[in-house]
Amino acid sequence: MYTGLISVAKRVSQDAGKPNTYTLYIIAQDPSLDPRSSTATVSINVYRNVAPLLDRDQYIAQISDTQEVMMPFLNVVATDSNSLRPDSDNGKMDFSITNINNGTDIRTLFGIDNIGQIYPVRSLRYLTTSVYTFQVVVSDRGVPSLTDTANVTVTVTSTPGVIFSPTSSTYNLPENNTTPAYLETLGAINSAGNSALLYENVADGFAKLAFSVNATSGDITQILNFSSDPVRSLSYVLTVRAYRQNDPTIQAFKTVRINVNRNPSPPVFGLPSYTFTVPENQALGSVIGKVNATDLDFGSAGDITYSISKTSNSPLMSYVFFHVDQYSGEVSISRSVVEDHLTSTYQFPVVVTDNGVPQLTSTCTCTVNVLRNMNGPVFVPNNTYTVYIKEDAPVGLQILDLNTTEADNQSVSYRIVQNDINILYFQISNVTGIISIAGSLLQSTSSVFPVS
């Protein structure tokens, strides 16, 4: 069923000719075998979108750097003839700012609302530039959107105020900094000399307690030791304020950062080197000496531990024979030096490390002299023996087993003195100390044979 309803088939805004009137010729025809028809003419008038217009090409404004944030100081005016038709979006307008200022994003300083009012979006105090140029764009909501632009120049004038130069400072202080300790004198600049400046500490936390600011001189003084901070922070931010006595709203702020070295002092040995002397049969685990170090730092930064370094040892493996208690500094035997009978002197470094941040260390040298073979072998029970044997005792007969002790735990060997003539008749095992007959006693006329 045909209705004869006319509708828009394509946006007329896409027609490059942009006529204001379209004429349609309509034919109505019946479906009979011998159809009859009738014609009609339809005229369609188009309300074309017209670009909005700003009332001028250039706007100039001069404002003070005390202009309140979000408070309008300039109004740009635009009109759009399409606004006469409230049923159309063509006459509705939007405003925006386009940045053309060199080096500065103007939108971080100024904004514009939906009725064309320009305002600062932040404080204009202490700007490095005084003149700002940018464009204002007005756009309608037609399809496509049409626009108009105008240049805006804003000059910001400075008013006398209070400034810090520089606006920040940094100090590196040791944790054990002696108090009271002077840091600096605040020197705010007051461009209006008819009013005195006052200073105050507006920090919070430990920085508020640890530092005092003289209200009139601006002297900053540390009055509490950093060790009294239970949090043990590594840095503090002290914010100080300077303001006019007759108008506290004219003010400036400075940031003072204090970095704290929580571990200013390294541990120190009482001596640069320690020497110990021990017998080679010193018992395992026995203490042979002690190294001692101290640390002046507070808290855990002053806690120290000892260790033997595996580098710079002489001989290279000296550290395997000795142990240092990590807390007391006592040096003891951890492996028998008898095993290393060719070495009589050992040298190794002992390192003391504190528990600060960062950790600090010191090193001393330990020398251990080993007394080798302090004791000779001793015959037991005595060194005089008498043995009775028959003169016809056979060669090879064992006649005496000598026993000895050696306090140094060294092995013992035996021999008969070479210039003893009786060596012809007797022999001794160099390992066991057993004396036996080496030659027939019948060949000698002696009845007593002294043997050494």
From TrEMBL:
Domain of life: Eukaryota
GO cellular component, one term: plasma membrane
GO terms assigned for molecular function: calcium ion binding
Membrane-traversing stretches: none
GO annotation, biological process: homophilic cell adhesion via plasma membrane adhesion molecules
UniProt membrane topology term: Single-pass membrane protein
Gene3D superfamilies linked: Cadherins
Short name of one Pfam family: Cadherin
Keyword entries, A-Z: Calcium, Glycoprotein, Membrane, Transmembrane, Transmembrane helix
Compartment(s) of residence: Membrane
Name recorded for this polypeptide: Cadherin domain-containing protein
Gene: 106074481
